[in-house]
Task: structure prediction
Amino acid sequence: MAELVNIFEREFARETIFLDRNLITPHFTPQKLLFRDKYIGEISGILSKTLHGEKPDNLFIYGKCGTGKTSVTRLVMQQLLEFASAKNIPVEGNYVNCRNHNSKYRILSKIVKDFFPEEDFMGYSAAFVYEKLLEHARGKEKAGGKHIVLVLDEIDKVKDLDELIYGLTRGNDEIGSSGSISLIGISNNLMFKDRLDPRTKSSLCENEMVFPPYNAQELTEILRQRTGMAFKPDTVEESAVCLAAAIAAQESGDARTAVMLLLRAGEIADRRGSGKVTDREVMKAKVQVEEELVYNMVSTLPEQQQFVLYSIAVLSLTKKPQPKITGETEKGVLFSGEVYDEYCKIAKKHKEEIVSSRWYREYINELEMYGLIYTTASGKGIKGQTTLIKLGFDAEKIKGLIERELIEQN
Ligand SMILES: Nc1ncnc2c1ncn2[C@@H]1O[C@H](COP(=O)(O)OP(=O)(O)O)[C@@H](O)[C@H]1O
Ligand SMILES: [Mg+2]
Result:
């Protein structure tokens, strides 16, 4: 009789070129962040006021995805809190990812829960939770207050941001001078700032910082630093590192993409049992990573924007190719107006609120910024001047993805 072998035996014994796979995932933040000393210096300069008992200015950081905003901020915050705690200086901090906590109430509840872990705030009103936070900053009578730095990452996801910022800014007047609440807002969205209410903008953007994309050389260095930690010696060819960096630099200058490329290339090498990451594995990984990125991008879009993108995908699949003046035809070219009509129809069918055409145009701009669509002005023609829209990725795939994400859930 054949011996029964545990099904994990083979997996467990499988040879791998990874030393520690975790170190080459985008979740890992190295202690040494390359090419960001200038920003680390500026942010710590602003926050150092807390160490002298003063309220620092609020700070707004923006820049494309994967430019190190989250990593840099977390690193500086970690060092600030370590330093303050070692010197017994009353400084506290809290990090909130607003993608997971997307309203004033949820954000304040999360923060207060972290500050008072033994208490339960379930079901308490927003006003109560807000008071609790002010009380924490004000401190107990003689003990004096605390300077609190709140990091609101992906701040563009907050639905009632104006109220949140207004509340927190006004809170400072009630706390008194021995304590304060200051904010670091972070956003991947380059246009978000221009959409802010003027009052919110002037409070949040007392200081502003833009993180630029990395170039191919910088990405090569970042990847070299990681491969040394994550892979066994001599398992990643130098040319593969350069190729991954070049691809990421060309697409977006995004360190996350660069890291993902090497991670997936390593997995492909393991699967093939080739023991080495070469250009070939990186090229294969490119296809996979691109899909993952699009998937991620689409699934984190606000619902209304998903509906707009969905309308574009649906129309791209159903509309007849457009005849051009040259006699050729072009597939998948849409008029902005017909996309808006389709969007209204679909949103209505799903009993969603319909955004105005002004907002719709904002959404179109953003979808283009993310590389999900292309647009161009039509020039004067039969329909007058209009915007032409074309989907940047496979329509079938985008449609399927949004159907799974959105429509089945509603
Ligand atoms: N300067 C850097 N040096 C080393 N790794 C970096 C650097 N910038 C970004 N990374 C890595 O890239 C990934 C994405 O960075 P992240 O800080 O999340 O970017 P953002 O918040 O701007 O989208 C993380 O794995 C991070 O560790
Ligand atoms: Mg981030």
